[in-house]
Amino acid sequence: MSANSYTVPPFSGARYKVNAERAGYLDPCCICGRAVKDRSKAKYAVVIDGGVAWGDDQSDTTNPGYMGCWLVGPDCHRKFLTKQRP
Fold first, then answer.
1. Which of 49, 65, 71, 75 is the most buried (most CB within 10 A)?
2. Is residue 81 classed exposed, middle or buried when 0-12, 13-18 and 19+ CB atoms within 10 A define those classes?
3. Count of CB atoms situated within 10 Å of the CB of 4
4. Beta carbons of 82 and 10 less than 8 angstroms apart
């Protein structure tokens, strides 16, 4: 799995909390909180430092701030991607 990095911090969308609550049983995008309806179009990102930064494949999984892989919806991926690692 490759890790992506974005220009905005995780969980920082203006309406993240409201959108995530509306997502119901569907997984929310970790940027805007909207439901990711088609997981095949979503990307994944590693979230670290308790949710304030993006990590990569080399992130320390034993660090208490490591939050694992989260979905990024296709719209947010297109808008906010800074670099994609192979």
1. 71
2. middle
3. 18
4. no
